[in-house]
Amino acid sequence: MAEADAKFMRTLRELARCYQAFESFSDAHIRSTGLTPPQFDIIATLGNTKGLSFKELGERTLITKGTLTGVVDRLESRELVRRTECPHDGRSQIVVLTAAGDKLFRRVFPAHLAHLGTAFETLTETQLQHAELTLRRLREMFEAAHELTLEEAEMTGAARSRPRRAA
Fold it and tell me: Is the domain of 132 the same as that of 107?
């Protein structure tokens, strides 16, 4: 069992180190555009859309609900996004790129993809496909384990003490 644990820990350590390396490489470029990573996430998510509700924006980005409003506020103060009323729900707002925000998106998004692409240049198509498959399996494994944990918590009543994240 100790040997199996060691293999698992090496994989976990490599996964964490890979994420940290990616984040460092990506974030440095994003910051060079004058945006923070959460601001870039919102600009990139809103690009090529007619706008999204706060709920949709929260579901599609890596930004926590508590942070989202502040990031949108800062982008709004820079006149990169604006809020409009939701036509279907008067209680909701839609976040839309302004003309300046759209211009920024069209400049920084392709540049960032090109920047990220330089890191992948040494991989063959087969290696990229293998990496994608392995990462998909890992994601699905974590999602299934998380769902099982939620179900177990519900059965024991522990879920009542914590709010459940919307799907």
Answer: no
pLDDT of residue 71: 96
Main-chain dihedrals φ then ψ at residue 47, nearest 5 degrees: -55, 140
The amino acid occupying position 51 is G
Entry pTM: 0.81
131: amino acid identity, one letter: A
For residue 65, the tally of other CB atoms under 10 A from its CB is: 13
Residues 38-62: tens digit of each pLDDT: 999 999 999 999 999 998 999 999 8
Read off the tokens for 45: 């998510």
Neighbours of 36 (CB within 10 A): 15
Q: Which structural domain, as residue segments, surrounds residue 161?
A: 123-167
**β strands within the chain, DSSP E:** 52-53, 81-85, 93-97
Q: What is the pLDDT of residue 157?
A: 76
Q: Per the structure, how many domains does the chain have?
A: 2
Under 8 Å between Cβ of 120 and 103? no
